[in-house]
Write a structure and sequence with these properties.
Blueprint (H helix, E strand, L loop, with lengths): L7 H4 L8 E2 L2 E2 L5 H15 L1 H26 L5 H14 L4 E10 L4 E9 L2 H10 L8 H15 L3 E7 L8 E7 H4 L1 H4 L14 H28 L9 H13 L6 E4 L6 H10 L8 E5 L5 H9 E2 L11 E2 L1 H4 L4 E5 L6 H13 L1 E2 L8 E2 L3 E6 L3 H6 L5 H7 L2 E4 L10 H15 L6 E2 L4 H6 L5 H15 L4 E2 L6 H5 L15 H15 L4 H8 L3 H9 L23
Parallel strand pairs: 7-14, 7-15, 8-11, 11-14, 16-17
Antiparallel strand pairs: 1-2, 3-4, 4-6, 5-6, 9-10, 12-13
Helix pairs in contact: 2-3, 2-5, 3-4, 3-6, 4-6, 14-16, 17-19, 21-22, 22-23
Length: 558
């Protein structure tokens, strides 16, 4: 799991009257009410105690979020877990948080992390009630960052704010270090560390913001162009598939034959349509045929057409697909399955750019771009005498190989979300969305059926979903069993019925993230029966922290 993949609508259950982060109750706060609270605290308690209270509030909030991220997801590495804290900052509306650098030396225990907070809500609330400040005021932000990082690293890390918008700056920024790295002379100033002067850097930052805005505008323009021609390619995160798209975009305007190869379900016809839509023939027909699904005689008639009376059942003249695709594109899917005789006829058509209908001697000129696709190894078929080499080179002037989904894992979540949106429209389920607990299962599965299998899995889950949430239990069993939850194995000849029952209960609990109510529904028993059965078995040793456990550093002050 990567921090950038976190989505708010997959993390938070927005049910009326019960907002929660996978079991942890949340509520929406008001910025102006928070500003009034801060003002009252300052007037009643003074600066020192107010700062201490708000810092500790943020500290435990950060630890709770770190524990939740550890509980819900399996991160690619420790750095992604750390970056998830910054992502949560942003999703929760605290600030637009970005980690500039992370430097950790496990041998010495030293740590230094630099972070920026753009559009800090805490600075805004201070300015709205108290005006400009002579010191940094984002105490909850620094407390949150300290608590989250301390939980992740298992040692006390303290953040201090070095720039603050409440001091008339444009952004807020902070640095976090382990206690020893702050040094003896700095430790006494951790709570009251003054912001460094940022006068003179405003113009530089303005220039950077304008540059970023231009980049965003260019990116949006590219997305708009792609969305008009091929919606599934709107979000391409993997380098391997991005290169394929770039190649397809480059060759699309050139009127040459294209051979698209790849395993079944990778989207070869989608790619062919993408090329057609970006070609000079886009305003003319795109006609496709599965060559492997038709017997030779029927395929010949389908492609070239026939004259009335040329064979039994040919009552009328029929225009073939080559003529139907005139000035457009003809897509020959599963080209590797056609017979040697049909291969020879296709070769002649590609060479001469003309056809004859079955039962007719009249030559008809055609103006068609031909694209073909196959999931077979044509070079191996040529070697075995099953496919003509000259036809292969005629079809494959340009050859595009689409990688299997297992080689472009970065695209799994964008594709999943795209299909969720598509089925939400198709089935009239406007609130349909993925639960965050599905993400690890989707990413860890090998997807032998590629994009088609993913689409079918999301469609199945959408149909089975009852409340608008797609959860792990709605996914196909093959995905759940191959996911991140380790399989338990029992020797059937050396275990009792009670042990098998316990094993099954534990597995279901793992699959639903420990949710006993959901587990009882899956098992077909009442929650009380499940509770009674769990009391009868030995407790499972904890292999990960939960939010109910004591958080690291909970007895030490910031």
């Amino acid at each position: 799991m990567k921090a950038a993949d976190l989505k708010l609508n997959e993390l938070i259950d927005l049910s009326e009257g019960n907002l929660n982060l996978h079991g942890r109750r949340l509520f929406i706060n008001d910025l102006h009410a928070a500003a009034q609270l801060r003002k009252d605290l300052l007037e009643m308690l003074g600066l020192e105690d107010t700062r201490r209270i708000l810092t500790r509030y943020g500290y435990f909030w950060g630890q709770a979020d770190a524990a939740a991220m550890n509980r819900i997801f399996q991160w690619d590495n420790r750095e992604e877990w750390l970056r998830a804290g910054a992502r949560l900052h942003t999703l929760q509306g605290l600030a637009n948080t970005a980690i500039k650098s992370i430097r950790i030396d496990d041998a010495s225990g030293s740590c230094q992390i630099e972070v920026t907070w753009r559009n800090s809500g805490e600075a805004e609330e201070y300015l709205s009630e108290l005006g400009l400040s002579g010191h940094p005021v984002c105490w909850i932000l620094t407390g949150y960052a300290s608590g989250y990082t301390s939980y992740c690293l298992g040692q006390e890390i303290y953040f201090v704010e070095t720039k603050c918008r409440a001091e008339s700056g444009r952004i807020c920024a902070g640095v976090g270090k382990d206690l020893n790295s702050w040094g003896e002379n700095e430790r006494s100033h951790l709570t009251y560390f003054e912001s460094r002067d940022i006068h003179g850097k405003i113009q530089q930052l303005t220039s950077e913001l304008r540059k970023k805005q231009r980049e965003i505008a260019q990116h949006k323009k590219l997305i708009d162009q792609l969305s008009k021609s091929a919606p599934p390619f709107v979000e391409v995160h993997s380098d391997t598939f991005r290169q394929v798209i770039e190649m397809a975009s480059h060759i699309a305007p050139f009127d040459t034959s294209v051979l698209i190869t790849g395993a079944s379900g990778t989207g070869k016809e989608v790619m062919a349509r993408y090329i057609h839509q970006r070609s000079r023939r886009a305003q003319y027909p795109f006609v496709g045929v599965n060559c492997g699904a038709l017997p030779e005689t029927l395929l010949e008639s389908e492609l070239f057409g026939h004259k009335a009376g040329s064979f039994t059942g040919a009552i009328h003249d029929r225009v073939g697909l080559f003529e139907q695709a005139n000035k457009g594109t003809l897509f020959l899917d599963e080209i590797g399955d056609i017979s040697p005789a049909m291969q020879l006829k296709l070769l002649r058509v590609l060479q001469e750019r003309e056809i004859m209908r079955v039962g007719e001697s009249k030559v008809r000129k055609i103006d068609v771009r031909v694209m073909a696709a196959t999931n077979k190894n044509l070079k191996k078929a040529i070697k075995n005498g099953q496919f003509r080499e000259d036809l292969y080179y005629r079809l494959g002037v340009i050859e595009i190989e689409i990688p299997p989904l297992a080689q472009r894992k970065e695209d799994i979540l964008p594709l999943s979300r795209y299909f969720v949106n598509q089925f939400a429209k198709k089935f009239n389920l406007p609130n349909l969305r993925l639960d965050a607990t599905c993400l690890d299962y989707l990413q860890s599965y090998s997807w032998p059926g590629n994009v088609r299998e993913l689409e079918n899995a999301i469609e199945r889950a959408a149909v089975l979903s009852k409340d608008g949430w797609i959860r792990p239990e709605h996914l196909p069993p093959s995905i759940l069993h191959a996911g991140t939850v380790p399989r338990r194995t029992l020797d059937p000849l050396n275990c009792t019925l009670a042990q098998v029952e316990e094993e099954h209960i534990r597995t279901v609990l793992d699959l639903v993230n420990g949710n006993r109510t959901k587990a009882a529904q899956v098992l077909g028993i009442s929650p009380a029966t499940l509770w009674r059965k769990l009391k009868q078995v030995a407790p499972v040793p904890a292999n990960r922290r939960s939010e109910s456990q004591p958080l690291p550093g909970s007895t030490n002050g910031f």
